[in-house]
Request: fold
Amino acid sequence: MENNYLLSFLILAPLAGSIILLFFGKDKENLVRYFGLFVSVLAFIISLVLFFNYDLTKGGFQFVEKFDWIQNLHISYNVGIDGISLLLVMLTTFLTPLTLLSSWKSIKHNVKEFTFFMLLLEVGMLGVFIALDLFLFYVFWEAMLIPMYFIIGIWGGDNRIYASVKFFLYTMFGSLLMLVAIVWLAVYASSSLGHFSTNLLELYSIGPTIQANIQEWMFLAFALSFAIKVPLFPLHTWLPDAHVQAPTAGSVILAGVLLKMGTYGLLRFCLPLFPQASIHFAPYISVLAIIGIIYGALVAMVQKDMKKLVAYSSVAHLGFVVLGIFAMTPEAVQGAVIQMINHGLSTGALFLLVGVVYDRTHTREISEYGGIARVVPVFATFFMIASLSSIGLPGLNGFVGEFLILIGSFKSPVLNSWWYTVFAASGVIFAAVYLLWMYQRVFFGEVKNPKMSTLTDMNNREIFVLASIFLFIVWIGIYPGTFLKVSAKSTQSIIEQVLPNKIIGMK
Amino acid sequence: MIQLIYLTVLLPFLGFLINGLFGRKISRLGGSASGGKNEKIIGIIGSGAIGLSFLIVIGAFIQTLALPAENRQTIVNLFTWIQAGGLNISVAYQVDQLSLIMALVVTGVGFIIHVYSIGYMHGDKAFWRFFSYLNLFIFAMMNLILSDNFVLLFLGWEGVGLCSYLLIGFWYDRKFEKSSTSDAAKKAFIVNRIGDFGFLLGMFLIYLTFGSLNFNEVFSRINALNIPSSTFNFIALFLFIGATGKSAQIPLYIWLPDAMAGPTPVSALIHAATMVTAGVYMVARCSIIYASAPAIMTVVAVVGVLTAMFAATIGLVQNDIKKVLAYSTISQLGYMFLALGVGAFSAGIFHVMTHAFFKALLFLGAGSVIHAMHDEQNIQQYGGLKKYMPVTYLTFLAASLAISGIPPFAGFFSKDEILWYSFANGNFLYWLIGAITALMTAFYMFRLVYLTFEGKERFGHDKHPHESPKIMTVPLMILAVLSVIGGFIGIPELFSGANGNAFENWLEPVFANAQSRLMIYGTHSHFEEILLMSVTVIGAALSIWYARYLYIHNTQKPAVYAQKFKGIYNLLFNKYFVDEAYEKTVVKPIVVGSEKLLWKITDAGLIDGIVNGTASIIGYVSAKIRKVQTGVAQSYALVMMLGIVTALFWLILSL
Reply:
């Protein structure tokens, strides 16, 4: 299946779609909606083809394409996917059509522009996950900021300008340091390759040869950029603002995919390029991750706004993912990868659900609600399942990821202490606290607010969107093998790149 | 039948799905007039799923009985659940002596309670939802007891917790005591999660130590590997923390009394007969680990005996019929842990079984009374009910005699066995506290019986007590029979002679390794056994007599005593103020600290302060610098000149 340009088709579909959209009439709103949906579904179908044709027995990067781009600098258009990026590509192409469907009614003005930016966003995200050239990666990484900036800034809430600028500046700040590091790395490569190189696969063999103290600086430059995106405590304060102000679709993509670009970056670049530095910094980053788990949960607990609560819960969940990555055991890293998907599904579902009632009531204040389980039973059931998934109830997806991360970090030779896991596992308790408390205040008791007694339950479109997500929430919960298998070889090879001399998987 | 054991998990799950997805539709079939008939359909689906499972368990039991004693373990492997690195978790069920006993109790008592619920929940708006949750509970519980590994057990463990949560809060718009049913539900889930945290750590340490989480693999490696005793201590302790959550032991028992906010069949099934014994089952399943951690065995025994006593004292003065039973459950669970702690594993399981019979019966009886009294639960508002509801009375009496340890009722055999082992394997103090608790048990139970069924009627004329319908009384009768004769399968060697205790013999292979590790050699005589037994039986009889004296013949006295010992009475009545203490020392500080210190100060103040501060400094500086760009060409020229001059100077100086 080599060189059939599938990956190029994958990003060309939404790119071409967004350009074609520009020629649509402004008043043809429904046509625009259907066309956007069609294009995003097309991308999903292409990713399904990728999924079924990816050779699990071989592992490694497949569907690789490489064309010279800037010849003098040896920069090329170089794309390919391994198991990890395949899963994230699937997540992206899966969530995009669902978010478009979810905003069918809630985005009323500038539908064309909205759809245009959403498709462009998809291009950027997919590009990040498939780029095998650091320069190309950087282009996508930055390009994706622009549509997100506009989505928050145009279709956001009352305080959207502050939120979108904060989001933009925070992320730009990190990116600039990364750019410096990329250039340094490319120059350094020329000493052994004889030419400037941003080719990731070439750099994989060069990175580890960098002297330890320089490696540490390089690592930090990359990691800072990724840590902001994750976001790792204490770089997380852009997230609650961005989420609260973003429209539902923006929040879903932000939480579902954008945050994963940070953890993906750590896994794809930081660990294999700078193995010694990664091991050196693993304890520190893990501590920050664990602070994030507990801190995020505690702050989530006392939020008054549903969306803000879910936003802070992301800080906690992503803390688990980062811990898993830096534990560097097969269990933990596999857990981290599946947890990236899980978080996209369960937090995506929670944001969609908050959006469902927000569309009807135009409030997200928890105290405005109460007792609506009786009024909107279907909605209440869906919200319960999404919460349970996020809490990590065994049988649903969240448990598989958290369990693997925790059990993997417990035996991690890099962290080499129980305490990381002990503290991280306490997050399991807090997750139950903040979600069930919110659930109780929103759904149980008697209806006090007369506005809430006339709420209408979810319609078929909304049910379809959420049911599609729940299919995978249950699937991963009961039979995660389908997905764990996909990334097994790739995570193993990353661990081997970082810990070549240690015996993997055994203590 | 053994190979079909997975059906006992699958059928309840199907029941859950059918009633959960279509229950609302079914209950609306044919308009509102056919409500009763539709309830029947839902009830039959729900109960039928459990009834069929029960039959399959019986089949598996008979088949296993036919196998030679050392060959009675069968693993039914279904599929791989979680596989990563060296970790390999299957969905696989283990049929052996221990899991079969538990499965018989869960599906058997579970079936009876399902049938009872058809009557009890009649007319409820969400009848279908109740049955779907109840089925989901049995599904989770069967996973818990049949699992062949820790992780699937944990799935059941958390699953039953979820169902407990859903069912405690079943009437989610009702008030419960000072708060609401949903508060009680949330409390149950969160306190259980604290226990689960311990359970998780236990699993992690087991995996680190043994490289597996499969029961057979772990247990068989215990002798092969050279493992320091501190590791065993940690594993045993972590797992026990989990058990204290699920089985309501000190310090995590606080959720169980509140769990009474749920419908009464739920209290019977989940919060008395089955789920709360999960901790006992789990410790018994890991008997070999506990036998390798003697220090933690002592912890288990001490926590058990103290909980037994502590909860019983509270039970003495409560006025809510379900509250009394709830504290009694905590107390009886304490006995079970006492048994485990002194290495009498099969005695602990024996008590799990008999307790399931009589405590389910007590709760269902209480439900029948509550039904008759139109949701009144205060026993001070009852009195003289026996003439209105003879079946409920007689069956309740049988259960009360059983829990009081009066021979030959079921509770006598199991409780006596525990007390005997607490002395023989443990020490005199265990026995003494256990025996005093037994006397208190007899007292508070008969206080309940007399205040409810005998004496003067203390309820208003608006109440018209009546016997419950057959669909509720027949289950009571079946459980009454079990409460009377259920103990005969565990007649102690003292009476049965050379054949020994049949129940103990049946479980012997499961606990053989643990027993040989503990190496307890009984040096006590039959005379001692008879002596101790007589003391508790006579003491229990005297307690019953004293309860009669106080609550039938001298009804003014309890109030007088309450006044006289006001301090103690208040302390007991308010449950030692433990809830209040937890609220003040744990809950409040965390909530307030998170809001003020973490959110307002750290997040919004400090971190955002730095971020926004940096931004405004840059903004401020840029605003100043911007002024330089005046658009006047002359000033640009001036600056340019200055620059050139500076550069030149620098060049000259550096030469």
Observations:
- Residues 149-573 of chain B form one domain.
- Residues 94 and 148 of chain B are 5 Å apart (CA to CA).
